[in-house]
Specification:
Elements lengths: L5 H8 L12 E7 L4 E9 L6 E9 L2 H14 L4 H5 L3 H7 L8 H18 L13 E3 L4 E2 H11 L4 H8 L9 H14 L13 H9 L7 H4 L3 H5 L3 H6 L1 H14 L4 H15 L3 H5 L6 H20 L3 E9 L2 E8 L7 H16 L4 E4 L2 H5 L1
Parallel strand pairs: 7-8
Antiparallel strand pairs: 1-2, 2-3, 4-5, 6-7
Helix pairs in contact: 1-2, 2-5, 4-5, 5-7, 6-8, 13-14, 16-17
Length: 368
């Protein structure tokens, strides 16, 4: 359960300035209804002084989105447009006496809606300054420029923090490497060290407690000995099956041999463990049953991230290299459903060590 301040609760249960402003002459819209987060900000601006006389909001999202929008309208009323543009997402969070880290993206959305409204008032086309950036997170359409700006503005230092502030990486997780590259570049420019395995590594445990699902091991964890994997959750043992078979068998046989041969086997195992990254990524061919289980486990690991935004994905069928899934909830009508499927496909290809296609269930009839 996230810890909300009393101010957040107050602005959620009794939001200020909810609804559209009559005679508004500035309108800013960000987000998407189909993806679960959208905000429409309306302002009444004095043409002579460019002072914001009134502000209102309409939002579709969680309680933090409502509270952040309410706080934003209270903050900017009475400000000039230039003063309002100086309001940061951290100012919104501070006004609310803090937001849970996982909900900071709501304050970022408020800041962008304000920028869009000011551009609308001035007759400009708001481009959000992101068009030149390469797409990093396909699930939530977050590009490199937005990630970089948010890292700089909020002194972020981990992938987890970037996800909390922008949602990038909160879907299939295939973009985490790209986020790390942006983090490493920005932190190096700032003279700070990027440590991928720092404190935020505890995030998967918090996620498990929140949704009641087992923690999925990373590739490094999957290479642990079979006896260690068996003592954890069943899914962790299944996920580590392939690596365990390749390392446990030589070790088991060595246990019955003389000490010298056992030592040699141990040395060989240690040498294999310290091989290059490319060799570590190599995956032996899976049996049909193990392959199906691996696909199921990968999808199960992705589902909680989609469920947080009121969507979901369900495995329907596997036909050779074609994997058919059904997108439900907010994901079923989302304009980004195709890129979400692409992200899921990338994650499954990585975990299987083979090329596959992830297709919507509707494609089954066409391929039959």
């Amino acid at each position: 359960m996230w810890d909300y301040s009393e101010t957040v609760k107050e602005h959620f249960f009794n939001p200020r300035n909810a609804g559209a402003v009559a005679e508004a002459n500035a309108i800013g819209e960000v987000g998407s209804l189909s993806c679960g987060d959208a905000l429409r900000l309306t302002l009444k601006v004095d043409p002579e002084t460019e002072t914001i006389q009134d502000a209102g909001f309409q939002t579709f999202g969680c309680g933090s989105a409502i509270a952040s929008s309410s706080a934003l309208t209270e903050l900017i009323k009475g400000m000039t447009l230039e003063q309002a543009l100086g309001v940061s997402n951290q100012d919104i969070a501070d006004y609310l006496d803090g937001l849970p880290p996982e909900k900071m993206h709501c304050s970022v959305m408020g800041r962008e809606a304000l920028q869009a409204a000011v551009a609308n008032y001035r007759g400009e086309v708001w481009t959000d300054d992101h068009e030149e950036g390469a797409m990093v997170c396909k699930c939530f359409a977050v590009d490199e420029v937005l990630i970089e700006e948010t890292i700089r503005a909020n002194a972020l230092s981990s992938v987890e923090e970037v996800t909390h502030y922008t949602k990038a990486g909160g879907g299939c997780s295939a973009c985490h490497e790209g986020i790390e590259e942006v983090l490493a570049r920005v932190l190096t420019e700032q003279g700070r060290a990027f440590r991928p395995t720092a404190a935020p590594a505890q995030a998967p445990e918090r996620q498990r407690l929140a949704v009641g699902m087992p923690v999925m091991p990373t590739r490094k964890q999957a290479s642990a000995p079979a006896d260690q994997a068996a003592s954890g959750p069943a899914t962790a043992a299944a996920f580590a099956q392939t690596a365990a078979e390749s390392s446990a068998q030589p070790t088991a046989s060595a246990a019955t041999e003389p000490t010298g041969r056992a030592t040699a086997a141990t040395s060989a195992a240690a040498s294999a463990a310290s091989s290059s990254d490319d060799a570590a990524e190599a995956k032996p061919k899976l049996s049909n049953l193990a392959r199906i289980r691996r696909i199921e486990q990968t999808i199960e690991a992705i589902r909680p991230n989609l469920q947080r935004d009121h969507g979901d994905v369900e495995l329907i069928d596997i036909d050779g290299k074609d994997i058919f899934v059904k997108m439900t909830g907010a994901c079923s009508g989302c304009q980004l459903a195709s890129v979400t499927l692409g992200g899921i496909q990338e994650r499954i290809c990585e975990d299987l060590g083979e090329l596959v296609r992830v297709l919507p269930a509707q494609a089954m009839a066409k391929s039959a």
